[in-house]
C-alpha cells in the first residue's frame, strides 16, 4: 500500500516546474512545455473523446466534465475545440506586444477561442490549486467554471457541491502523484451524491494507483487499467531526471526497457466505473467498439 510519503519521494525524481505553473500569463508555461515535448493531452484526447461519445449516447444534454489539475484549461481547449498541442503551442507562442495590459491579453485569447468553429457539446469544470491559471482559463472561456482548492488538505467547498454533484466524467492527465487518495476521499462523497460519474486517470508508470483504487472501490467503483497501452507525457527534462525516474521504476520492479529508457515519461490509463457498468462493457470492448 502506497503512503503519501511514498508519493513525495517519487515526486522528488521529477523536475520541479512550480515556477511556471501559476503565472498570470500562460506563455512561459507553454514555452517550457514545448521544449519538453509535453504531449499527454494529445495522447489522452482520443480516449476522452471515446468516453464522451459513449456518455452522450445515453443522456440528453451536454456531458459535464471535471478536469483535475486543469492548469490553464489545456484539456478543455483540446476537447472543446478539437485542437492539438501543436496548435496550442503555435497560439501561445505568438510574439505579442509586451506592453499590453492583462485585460487586453485576456480579451485577445477570449476572442481567439470564441471564434473557433463548432465547439464540442461539453461543459468543463476545472479544478486546481493554481489560482492564476484557473482564473485565466475561466476568463478566456476555456473553463465553464473554475475551482481553486487543495483537496489534499480540505474538503470540497460547500459552494461547489451542487455543481460537482452533476458531473458525468472526471479526468486527469498527470496530477496523480501530486494528488493522492486524500483528494479522492474528499471529492467522492460530493460527485457520487446523485450519480456515479466515470473517472478517467492517466497516471505516470512510476506512481502506484492502489490507494486511489481502494478509495474508489469504497464508493462502488471498479477500476480497470487499459492493459498493453502506454502514453507519452513528455521528454525528460535532464539526464538527472531520467536517471532518477529509471531508478524509481527499477525499485518498483517495472521494466523500462524500450519505454522510459528511450527518453520519455510514460503514463498508463485507468478507468473507474460503477461495478455494473464495468461488467456490462469491459474496457477492452469499450475501446474496440
How does this structure look, described?
This protein is an alpha/beta fold. It is 43% helix and 17% strand. The protein contains 14 helices and 8 strands. It has helices at residues 4-11, 18-21, 27-35, 40-57, 74-81, 85-92, 102-114, 131-139, 161-164, 181-191, 210-217, 239-251, 275-280, 283-288; strands at residues 63-68, 122-128, 145-148, 169-172, 198-204, 221-225, 231-235, 264-274. Strands 1, 2, 3, 4, 5, 6, 7 and 8 form an 8-stranded mixed β-sheet that branches. Strand 2 (122-128), helix 8 and strand 3 form a beta-alpha-beta unit. Helix 4 crosses helix 5 (74-81). The radius of gyration is 19 Å and the shape is globular. It starts with a helix and ends with a helix. The mean pLDDT is 92.
Present the secondary structure layout.
Blueprint: H1 4-11, H2 18-21, H3 27-35, H4 40-57, E1 63-68, H5 74-81, H6 85-92, H7 102-114, E2 122-128, H8 131-139, E3 145-148, H9 161-164, E4 169-172, H10 181-191, E5 198-204, H11 210-217, E6 221-225, E7 231-235, H12 239-251, E8 264-274, H13 275-280, H14 283-288
Parallel strand pairs: 1-2, 1-4, 2-3, 4-5
Antiparallel strand pairs: 5-8, 6-8, 7-8
Helix pairs in contact: 4-5, 10-11
- Pick out the low-confidence regions: none
Distance between the termini: 34 Å
Class by SSE composition: alpha/beta
Q: In this structure, how is the largest beta sheet organized?
A: 8 strands, mixed
Tell me, rounded to a whole number, the average pLDDT. 92
Number of strands: 8
Beta strand %: 15-25%
